[in-house]
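Recall the central idea of this unit: under ordinary conditions, the amino acid sequence of a chain determines the structure it adopts. In this exercise we apply that idea directly, starting from the sequence alone.
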Amino acid sequence: MSRPTLAISQPLRDWLRQDPAWGYMPWPLRAQLNWRAMLGSVNASLSPQPPVASDAELLFIAGPWRSGTTVMHELITAALGWLTPQTWQCMDPTAFRLRRAPTAVGAIARPMDGLQLGALSPQEDEFALLGLGVDSAYRAFWMPHRLGTLHHTLDPTYWQGDGKWLDTWQRFIDAVRGPSAQLVLKSPNHSFRMPALLGRYPNSKWVWMLRDGRSVFASNRKMWGQMFAAHGLSAADPDALDRFLALTLNRCAELLESVALKLPPSQMAFCQQTDLRLDPEFQVHRVLGQLGLEVGSDKHTFADALRATAQGRLDSYPDLGDLPSFCIEAIDRFDAAQQLALSGARTSG
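Accordingly, the structure predicted from this sequence is:
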């Protein structure tokens, strides 16, 4: 059983307690989680209300997990000079407003790709939503055996049906951006929230990362397994993970066909992970130019980001073995939808 390291508040603790596995955990662990959850909620109540900018200019980086969203996030943030949630904020979402930003720049290598991750690194705001109690797919990092109960988090209609999560998310990003109106946001989970987010921010701009389906599937098997091992309080089920990943690819295909391809090129840009790997500077400028966004940072900042992201590892997966038919069908459908995006095929909304 792993030692829990992710942020927790009372809503997330309540979700953990709903499962019988909670009762079998050692009482010192349960006491620790109860204390951390209570402290997190107290900190959230003590945090000052963030200033809210009158208008928001948001750029979302989406696509499935392990499709290149992290590299694009770091490069675009460096190129634009816009604010973005940082690791220290996302990993302590209930209390970061009560303390100053860290000054230490120490970093560790991410296990899935070797990219350097530090307290001030751009980070996906999904970890903040998880800690704040939103019904995130990342709850499975805590209890891997409940992954099968989180399929609804991949359903866009679920996120459109309840606006409470959106209010929670809004408060977090308002606290991050302060009076600034411009923010870059990256979370593969936001892919499934795209209709809901477009409902609140109809003029938001999007970058969707593309990668061949077999590599996405294999890389996610590895990444989710690593997160389960690092943070999980229960055992994982490989078959449940395969079904979850197959559904992920099917949902992404649906969103590409029904939402992403209906947005104009000035609002939605696509980028292949392989192209970003081969010529990142060109691809970032191409994407920003298509979206009508100007490079706003100095050349040294962008050059530093180019050097840092070039150190990341890109694994290849030549053989996945015999996959269940539902996995193969999901991969094929996902690749077909991606091919439409690459061909420039768009439909009127």
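The first helix runs from residue 10 to 17.
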